[in-house]
Amino acid sequence: MNAQPPATTCVRHPNRPTGLACTRCGRPACPECLRPAAVGQHCVDCVREAGSQVRPIRTVAGAPVAASATPVVTYGLIALNVLIYGITAAQAGSLADNYRSELFLRWAMVPRLVADGDWFRVIGSGFLHWGPLHLALNMFALYIVGIQLEPFLGRARMLAIYLVALIGGSAGGMLLEPANTIGAGASGAVYGMFGAVAVLLIRLRMNATQILVIIAINVLLSLSLSGVSLWVHLGGLVAGTLATIGVLFLPEWVHAKSRETARTIGLVAIAGVGVVSVALIGLGAALVS
Predict the structure, then answer these.
(1) What is the C-alpha to C-alpha distance for residues 165 and 190, in angstroms, rounded to an integer?
(2) Cβ contact 129:95 at 8 Å
(3) How far is CA 202 from CA 44, 53, 177, 199, 233, in A?
(4) CA distances for 10 relative to 16, 37, 49, 264, angstroms
(5) What is the pLDDT of residues 101-122, one digit of tens each?
(6) pLDDT of residue 66
(7) Where in the sequence numbering do the catalytic residues fall?
């Protein structure tokens, strides 16, 4: 009597005989290791390999759609602003007079003190607010623009543009505000986000009239209301707008040949706006001195 050939076993489970095989690679596999496919069935190894070769869907800024769906940076910035406000209110023992706190006085934007070496005020002042209403207005605006921008820009670019807009606002204040002016608030950075939304809508070939009207109204309010720094707002607006143009338009203008090159160009553009803003702050400090 002829001996029967050994039974074929699953490549992943050698102790399991099987008469099935992957229609992609042809290797034998048990039912547990196979997945239905458009034609036949594929083993889990082929399914995993095919998944790794699928390019993720990306936005016009090159950000993966799924990874940026939840605006983590926006929520984080709001939480940080609220936290710092809470610290100043606790130190001052007052929700309305939180500007009397030690932290507020140490971080507030004062051009003369920045010129004397307190450079941290350039960034720290962007996380301070004059009372709960000021905080609420800025955080509401940040939420509205952040949940629109972050899914398109991606988390890293969103944070970078926000910080560059904040520094740009401080540059405007350093250059054009009186030396002893006390400034605080996220308004400069939020104006930068307004500019970023306008650039994004233009890049998507959508109607940007609404955001442009909002920007115009806010600039008019900055001109007409006392105690509001027009130059900080305009500095943030210009910095945020230019940085976003660098991300969304500059790679196309220079004919970037790959997504990696486009990403690098965008990051260099953001850094460039930041460097210019810091240089302007230095110029403002020199003029104050």
Answers:
(1) 8
(2) no
(3) 44, 32, 32, 5, 21
(4) 6, 19, 18, 46
(5) 999 999 999 999 999 999 999 9
(6) 54
(7) 187, 233
